Amino acid sequence: MPRHSYKKELSINLKHTSHSQVLQAIKTDQTTCEQIVNHYLTKIEESRHLNIYIEVFEEEAKKRAIELDQKLQNDPDSIGKLFGVVISIKDVICYEDHKVTAGSKILNGFTSLFSATAVERLLAEDAIIIGRVNCDEFAMGSTNETSCYGPTRNAADPSKVPGGSSGASAVSVQAGTCLVSLGSDTGGSVRQPAAFCGMVGMKPTYGRISRYGLLAYASSFDQIGILSNSVEDAALMLEVMAGADDFDATCSDRPVESNANTTFVSPLAGGRGAKIAYYDSALNHPGMDEGIKKSTFNFIEKLKDRGHTVEPVEFEHLDYIIPAYYVLTTAEASSNLSRYDGIRFGHRTAEADNIHEVYKKSRTEGFGAEVKRRIMLGTFVLSAGFYDAYYTKAQQVRRLIQDRTREILQEYDFILAPTSPTPAWDIGKMRDDPVAMYLADIFTVQANMAGIPAISLPIGNNVDGLPIGIQFMADKFEEKKLLEFAAMLK
Ligand code: GLN
């Protein structure tokens, strides 16, 4: 018998909670894993109108919760680091014997044969996975609107997009349907939805978390990231998932630092102040939303008041970031997505007379408009006549961006920028204007181009009640410093 009946009200408020609070409540008999899972399942029901979940793993989550409660009772010392953590996963992350579709019709009916390394590590530490959440098709987009399951809505205002591509991951935490969520970040897909929904969103250094079992969009940019209520939980999740993996040669074998109990001592309390750079000209750009600009400058003042050094620097390559990113990522995507051929995975056309038609019709029927646009663009920039003009050029630009970013980060601890130049916009607003949507990635893409870690933190709401995020980037493998600093800011 569980220690409490399902009906009993939870004595802790799970919304905006962190794992340490949940664990404390479990250990002091205020609640159980079973009760927590039931609470989240009710929340999932209540938020159906937001279109967050593609699939809820209801029965297995309940079963696992009961097993975990037993484990605690039988041997309290054996519980894992993520005991009681309920997680949603983006529909691009493989979980053995579960469906995964990347929000695409082309993977309709496909079941994963193995789990992503990140998922295995979470489960090994006693996390509970409650379901698979919506996202832009193959993580291509900034709004969650390119999904074949329709858009997810922002819980702060359901007429607005939640951001993308990990939009539903952000809303799953925002709407209180789970404690944390796994997303993926190729050009901002964890941080921008975190900003739009008022959550913490963390993208680690390229190579910090294994990509094994993450459906590829652009392999030299993709990283699994974390959406959470607190910096503390992002730190804990990172610590569990990070580290070498034989199944991903790009995964670093650097030892994983413990991020637990992070303490960056505030200068006000005698600690060292951080040295922070920001791009003044970008913040004063006419395309910047006035509310975000104001909040960002206010935030800069607050940092200075607290004893940190915040200085403007020039980043002369800013205008080239988006074009280079969209050349390189579409090139990689055109190659990565060639495996979806109607033969090996998911959807196959019913109407082909020969093998070429199988490929052509399966892909025509299976992929949505945005994915097709990117496959065509990527194929074009890789084609013999244009390779040097576009692909090689974009690689050179990437190198310049990497070099300049590292140069700044040798002088400064962090680079500060708004996460997004605008708050969440209306659903449908950018659907027919992909270039406008691409340009809104201006502040997030740099971290992926340079392979560095970055975190988006909520800094309040604008006059319309929409969340605003601020972003900090640090040098490669400086997650600990980044997280410690972020934790101190709260
Ligand atoms: N919005 C960006 C894009 O569409 C980022 C996507 C991502 O990080 N997966 O490419």
Task: Describe, in plain words, how this protein is organized in 3D.
The protein is of the alpha/beta class. It is 38% helix and 12% strand. The protein is built from 16 helices and eleven strands. An eleven-stranded mixed sheet has the order 1-3-2-4-6-5-10-11-9-7-8, with helices on both faces. A hairpin with a 5-residue loop joins strand 10 and strand 11. Helix 10 crosses helix 13. It is globular and about 65 Å long. Bound molecules: glutamine. The site of glutamine has 14 residues, from strand 4.
Write the layout of secondary structure elements.
Blueprint: H1 19-27, H2 33-46, E1 53-56, H3 58-74, E2 86-90, H4 117-124, E3 128-133, H5 167-174, E4 180-185, H6 191-197, E5 200-203, E6 223-228, H7 231-241, E7 275-278, H8 280-283, H9 290-305, E8 309-312, H10 318-336, H11 355-366, H12 369-382, H13 387-411, E9 414-418, H14 434-439, H15 445-450, E10 454-461, E11 467-473, H16 479-489
Parallel strand pairs: 2-3, 2-4, 7-8, 7-9
Antiparallel strand pairs: 1-3, 4-6, 5-6, 5-10, 9-11, 10-11
This protein binds glutamine.
Glutamine (GLN) binds at residues 139-142, 165, 184-189, 217, 329, 441.
